[in-house]
Amino acid sequence: MNDQAIFYANSIGLALRAISKDPFRNGINLLPDEIKIKEREVYFKNYRNKFIAVVIMLVAIISAVIFYYVIF
């Protein structure tokens, strides 16, 4: 019985991949919706600070370039 479980999981995964419009981007996640939502929140919380830091750095670099060309 346990040996056949992998075949069922494989079949379900292939079926879900076949019905997805963009299987490479969407991915397959069989977890319950509550867990998916929590994972998504943690993911965005972790990367939100990095995104803000990158935006601040880009603004600083662009400001420095503009300042350099205005002065010289």
Supply the key terms:
3 helices, 2 domains, 72 residues, elongated, mainly alpha, 0% strand
Protein structure class: mainly alpha
User: How many domain regions?
Assistant: 2
Radius of gyration: 23 Å
Sheet having the most strands: none
> Quick one: how many beta strands?
0
- Helix count from the secondary structure assignment: 3
Strand content: under 5%
Nearest-integer average pLDDT: 81
Q: Which stretches of 5+ consecutive residues score pLDDT under 50?
A: none
H-E order: HHH
Any idea what the shape is? elongated
Helix percentage range: over 70%
Q: Distance N terminus to C terminus?
A: 77 Å
A few lines on this structure:
By secondary structure, the protein is an all-alpha fold. It folds into two domains: 1-30; 31-72.
What would your notes on this structure say?
The chain is mainly alpha-helical and about 70 residues long. It is about 85% helix and about 0% strand. The protein has helices spanning about 1-20, 25, 35-70. The chain is elongated and about 70 Å long. The mean pLDDT is about 80.
